[in-house]
Amino acid sequence: MTENPFPLDRDDLLKAYRIMRTIREFEERLHIDFAKGDIPGFVHLYAGEEASAAGIMMHLKDNDRIASTHRGHGHCIAKGVDVHEMMAEIYGRSTGACRGKGGSMHIADLSKGMMGANGILGAGAPLACGAALAAKVRGDGGVGISFVGDGASNQGMFLESLNLAAVWNLPAIFVVENNGYAESTARDWAVAVDSYIDRASGFGLPGVTVDGTDFFAVYEAAGEIIRRAREGGGPALLECNMVRFYGHFEGDAQTYRAKGEVEAIRASRDCIKIFAERVIEAGVISRAELEAIDKEVLDLIEDAVRAAKSAPLPAPAELLTDVYVAY
Amino acid sequence: MARKISMKQAINEALDLEMTRDPSVIVMGEDIVGGTGSPGEDDAWGGVLGVTKGLHAKHGNRLMDTPLSESAYIGAAIGAATCGLRPVAELMFIDFMGVCFDQIFNQAAKFRYMFGGKAETPVVIRAMVGAGFRAAAQHSQMLTPIFTHIPGVKVVCPSNAYDAKGLLIQSIRDNDPVIFCEHKNLYGLECDVPAESYAIPFGEANVLRDGGDVTIVSYGLTVHRAMEAAEALAKDKVEAEVIDLRTLSPIDWDTVIDSVERTGRLVVVDEAHPRCSIASDVAAFVGQNAFGALKAGVQMVTAPHVPVPFSPVLEDLYIPNAAAIADAARRTLAPTGTSPRSIAA
């Protein structure tokens, strides 16, 4: 067997690949089924950004908590939320992760440390500070991680959270997933600084920028930041520069993008292809092993869609339940 | 054993008792310790009006000053609540809700429903409400109706020290988000309060005065104005029943309806603005559910539809007063078509 040059053992490499592949297939399938009119509401796809979710979440346990974004499917899958429950939720079924009452933008599983996708940009940052505070008060070594896009990085809630985390020395990590677009508006137009490291240092936080299409770069940077936070070293910001394969939401004609842009990034900046080529080239994982995972993931997604479509819709009485614990 | 203490002391005592009882209770807010990081005294303020004074010495770092950054720390309190703590966050003045409202109404209020019943968010947001402090338009509002409109949050507004202690203890133990409204002009008001711990259940109004002629419903500071009005009416042989709602969400409809069914007349007093207020809410509910019992149109006595003014002479006109409440009660007693002025004369 070839010597493994990667910071993960074979099992973890396969696990990381499976996470990324699952996210990709999940999103590609939603793209197709949404176009058919099978799925109600708004859907924002994470395809192209998988290395960020996987590279970070590989370091986390259930007592580490994440606050996600409107583009949250990838974070959910990487944090261990059940794919069947997610698909059923997106189809508005009673078997969904939120019993059909949340939908794509609100998938949560607190038992897995997933505090929720969030329809309000930047709103997860204070919540992640709260998770980090709870971990600090309890002394359980947990961390709270907030994901925002480059768009939400301009929100006051996010910027205030950077300061609060620094002032309270919280085990909080702020991940800016910079896919170049705040909805349709260019990141470089809407954010006045060139690097988020400058933003972080303005708030007294260390910041790291990585190529978010390189799983290993994300994994190593996140590992260092998370280790430091667990040891009481305080918060940090991680900027993952990445690409978005689809529009802001499904149905977005993306006329604001350059001609050929998506084809080009799919060809040269596909984080899953990049990962696969590296592990195969290093002789640590064979193409056959990855293809076997591809097949299993396809079956999983197919089964999740089939189960979601045949799952019961919420009963009318569900309209009025679970507003309060007691009222 | 009961002693006379102020509402401010009662709130302090409730926080102290719950922090002692339950290590998951933490308290945070701007200047609630006061002086953190400053060269002078520790615990210098104990809250901007001294409500949390002395708690830091006893409970240490479980009482946390925050930066002036309401979105971040109210959100952090909410996030920590979903992770098993029971945070009490002080929003100082409820007028500051504008800068952190997303965390309250889009986050805390919706988690349980939006996540299919899988979340609990046991957070308490304490905030000062109300006019009369010469604090002008941005530090004096009674914004209770904005919160009662939102499913998923509970809204509490005590009128006295006894209720404040029992309701705050209940709020901290409650598993839903609670907006706990403290009228700043009631902080100094004393009444008998037991030294031991007790909880007052939500949704139970307090009938402060029995009477068969007219029902007066209120909450917070104006409960006291309603009681003054009732005394004035009694001199005219009009017996008013005065109901203190105590909690606005949930609200004790049964006690209101029972009373109106006996008196046939209703005056609702609310320090909030008239439109979409607690007053209009109670009036509508009674109109829908006890119309047959009503002998006269429901009267609302509220603040006017204007911001809170600064000049004391104007601010005193702004807050519903006893004379206006008594006049409203007399209007319900006037024969149909009779001018209220002639009754008053």
Q: Strands of the biggest beta sheet of chain A: in what spatial order?
A: 1-2-3-7-6
Let me know the number of strands of chain A: 7
> CATH first level of the largest domain in chain B: which class?
Alpha Beta
Elements of chain A, N to C (H/E): HHEHHHEHEEEHHEHEHHH
The CATH topology of chain A: Rossmann fold
Quaternary structure: heterodimer
Number of helices of chain B: 13
Helix-strand pattern of chain B, N to C?
EHEHEHEHHEHEHEEEEHEEHEHEHHH
In round numbers, the mean pLDDT of chain B is 96
Computed CA radius of gyration of chain A, to the nearest angstrom: 19 Å
Helicity of chain B, as a percent range: 25-40%
What class would the helix/strand composition of chain B place it in? Answer: alpha/beta
Rg of chain B, Cα atoms, Å: 20 Å
- According to CATH, the fold-level topology of the largest domain in chain B is Rossmann fold
User: Mind telling me the CATH class of chain A?
Assistant: Alpha Beta
Please state the second-level CATH architecture of chain A: 3-Layer(aba) Sandwich
Runs of chain A in which pLDDT lies below 50 for 5 or more consecutive residues are: none
Pfam families (chain A): E1_dh
Catalytic activity (chain A): N(6)-[(R)-lipoyl]-L-lysyl-[protein] + pyruvate + H(+) = N(6)-[(R)-S(8)-acetyldihydrolipoyl]-L-lysyl-[protein] + CO2
Protein name (chain A): Pyruvate dehydrogenase E1 component alpha subunit
Domain Dehydrogenase E1 component (chain A): 20-316
Protein architecture, described:
The complex is a heterodimer of chains A (327) and B (345). Chain A has 327 residues and is of the alpha/beta class. Chain A has one domain: Rossmann fold (3-Layer(aba) Sandwich). Chain A is 44% helix and 9% strand. Chain A is built from 12 helices and 7 strands. In chain A, the strands form 2 sheets. Chain A has a 5-stranded parallel beta sheet, sandwiched between helices. Chain A has a two-stranded antiparallel sheet with strand order 4-5. In chain A, β6, α9 (215-230) and β7 form a beta-alpha-beta unit. The longest helix of chain A has 26 residues, at 10-35. The termini of chain A are far apart. With 345 residues, chain B is of the alpha/beta class. Chain B folds into 2 domains: 2-194, Rossmann fold, CATH 3.40.50.970; 206-344, Rossmann fold (3-Layer(aba) Sandwich). Chain B has helices at 7-21, 55-59, 70-82, 101-108, 111-114, 144-148, 161-173, 222-235, 253-263, 278-289, 312-318, 322-333, 340-344; strands spanning 2-6, 25-29, 63-65, 86-93, 124-129, 154-156, 178-183, 190-194, 206-209, 214-218, 240-244, 247-249, 266-270, 299-302. Chain B has a 7-stranded mixed beta sheet, sandwiched between helices. In chain B, strands 9-11-10-13-14 form a 5-stranded mixed beta sheet, with helices on both faces. Chain B has a two-stranded antiparallel sheet with strand order 1-8. In chain B, α7 (161-173) links the parallel β6 and β7. In chain B, α3 packs parallel to α4, α8 (222-235) packs across α12 and α9 packs across α10. Chain B is globular and about 65 Å long. The termini of chain B are far apart. Chains A and B meet through α5 and α6 of A and α3, α4 and α5 of B. Chain A: It is an enzyme of class 1 (oxidoreductase). Chain A: Keywords: Oxidoreductase, Pyruvate, Thiamine pyrophosphate. Chain A: Its EC number is 1.2.4.1. Chain A: This is Pyruvate dehydrogenase E1 component alpha subunit. Chain A: Its cofactor is thiamine diphosphate.
